From TrEMBL:
Entry GO MF terms: 4 iron, 4 sulfur cluster binding; rRNA (uridine-C5-)-methyltransferase activity
CDD domains membership: AdoMet_MTases
Alphabetized InterPro entries for the sequence: MeTrfase_TrmA_AS, MeTrfase_TrmA_CS, NA-bd_OB-fold, SAM-dependent_MTases_sf, TRAM_dom, U5_MeTrfase_fam
The encoding gene: rlmD
Family statement drawn from the similarity comment of this UniProt entry: Belongs to the class I-like SAM-binding methyltransferase superfamily. RNA M5U methyltransferase family.
Species name: Paenibacillus validus
Ligand binding (S-adenosyl-L-methionine): Q286, Y315, E336, D384
Protein name in UniProt: 23S rRNA (Uracil(1939)-C(5))-methyltransferase RlmD
Primary enzyme class: transferase
Source lineage: Bacteria, Bacillati, Bacillota, Bacilli, Bacillales
Iron in keyword set: yes
Length: 455
């Protein structure tokens, strides 16, 4: 095996022909069975490992193979971090045509790509679980099950514990499954569109200990509703919010439009650094709070603020990065396309008494050119786009605005590389890239990059 693909699959060569083998690691010699052949490459099933890699470990999760939520549990954590750094460096070189230096050869010309910052304890890191509910057997035999869809299907497999999920969320899901089953509440059936309980969403504030339970239901009137709420309160000590979200559409989308509070508050609070956030049932909030703080501190560090700067935060979500920056800047302008997120961002600014930040709803590539027309001249622009990267029109506007620094937070190294190329061609130099492991045991990697104007 010669490498590891984007999805964590082993890449092997047989007489110059490429085979993708799920579960195989670079450096290994394996026996496989070819299952699918194309002209240039094929897919094969791993049968035996003849010479294992030194990076191979036993995946601790008993359902690792069926679930598909994690892709790298069979690789040591150290090796995962090294692979993530290499993936970023390879993308910068291949797609961005950028020279990469370091670690260890900082003397070389090129972008310094640092070693990935990992977690001290890379397990149980998620603060949110969203779990589909089903039946163990026909007519409530076997009660309710809650877990994940078997790979490539919509068959629900029951799960007692998820090793990347905070224990508290596992407890909530188990409790709801048990008490709703005892009350005879039926799970929703995707094919018939009947049954009540679709999903359970559990959220946990790592720094406050607050717990939210959201029941996503196919209709408003849950049978035995008050009993259910009472039993959840008993089974989940410390719960602060129990909500219901109604979704009657036959769709894969989890949440519907209407959220009701069944008991307690409509939000839970959590903190990142010194900043407090109110999180409602449907709000976007980073799922790994420990590494989020690491990432945001890096972004703040790269922005090198003195208190005098005007800063733009593009793709600001609920204003997390904006509020972080605002403590050290003169003014921060945040823009985000989802109106509800901007409502949350404004509420979060007020909650923290932060007044030097303004939020606007709209596409970054439309709103920021309008700000330019109004004479807003940023010293620093931070972008944190979705996987598809920045819109070209936004990159052009950045080049016209000529901020001293650009901080690019990215969840996709390939679009990052493409966008860095465009900024480099327009007069910026990429100084350093810091990969941060927000999603241990999966193939995802987040990066924070610093660009400075060349002149
Ligand atoms: N910076 C935030 C959110 C980043 S996720 C945080 O760290 O929490 C990317 C965000 O970009 C999402 O909230 C998404 O709704 C938003 N988005 C997607 N396309 C956009 C566009 N064209 N203009 C502005 N925001 C956009």
């Amino acid at each position: 095996m010669v490498g590891l693909g984007h999805d964590g699959e082993g890449v092997g060569r047989v007489n110059g022909f490429t085979l993708f083998v799920q579960g195989a690691l670079p450096g290994e010699k394996v026996r496989v069975k070819v299952v699918k052949l194309k002209k240039q490459y094929g897919y094969a099933k791993l049968l035996d490992i003849l010479e294992p890699s030194a990076d191979r470990v036993d995946a601790p999760c008993p359902i690792y193979k069926q679930c598909g939520g994690c892709q790298l549990q069979h690789m040591s954590y150290e090796a995962q971090l090294r692979w993530k750094r290499q993936l970023v460096a390879d993308n910068l070189e291949r797609i961005g045509k950028l020279a990469v230096a370091g670690p260890g050869d900082a003397a070389r010309e090129g972008i310094l790509v640092h070693p990935t910052i990992g977690m001290d304890d890379p397990w149980r890191y998620r603060n949110k679980a969203q779990v589909p509910i089903g039946h163990g057997g026909p007519d409530m035999e076997g009660g309710l099950i809650a877990g994940f869809y078997a790979q490539g299907s919509h068959r629900i497999i029951d799960m007692e514990a998820c090793l990347i999920q905070h224990e508290q969320n596992d407890d909530v899901v188990r409790a709801v499954k048990r008490v709703a089953g005892e009350l005879g509440i039926r799970a929703y059936n995707e094919e018939t569109g009947r049954g009540m309980l679709r999903h359970v969403v559990a959220r946990y504030g790592f720094n406050t200990g607050e717990i939210m339970v959201v029941l996503i239901t196919n209709g408003e009137s849950i049978p035995h509703r008050d009993e259910l709420v009472g039993l959840i309160r008993e089974a989940v000590p410390g719960v602060t919010s129990i909500c219901q979200n109604v979704n009657t559409q036959q769709t894969n989308v989890i949440f519907g439009d209407r959220t009701l509070v069944l008991w307690g508050r409509d939000v839970i609070y959590d903190t990142i650094g010194d900043i407090r956030f109110a999180i409602s049932a449907r709000s976007f909030y980073q799922v790994n709070p420990v590494q989020t703080e690491v990432l945001y501190r890096k972004a703040l560090d790269f922005a090198a603020l003195t208190g005098e700067e005007v800063v733009i935060d593009a793709y600001c979500g609920i204003g997390t990065i904006s509020l972080f920056l605002a403590q050290r800047a003169r003014n921060v302008y945040g823009v985000e396309i989802v109106g509800e997120a901007i409502d949350d961002a404004r509420a979060n600014a007020a909650l923290n008494g932060i007044r030097n930040v303004q939020f606007e709803t709209g596409a970054a590539e439309v709103v920021i050119p309008a700000w330019r027309q109004q004479g807003i001249a940023p010293d620093v622009i931070v972008v944190d786009p979705p996987r598809k990267g920045c819109d070209a029109a936004l990159l052009e506007t950045i080049l016209e605005m000529r901020p001293e620094r650009v901080v690019y937070v990215s969840c996709n190294p390939s679009t990052l590389a493409r966008d860095l190329r465009m900024l480099e061609d327009g007069g910026y130099r990429t100084v350093e890239v810091q990969p941060v492991d927000m999603f241990p045991h999966t193939t995802h990697v987040e990066c924070c990059s610093l660009l400075v104007r060349k002149d």
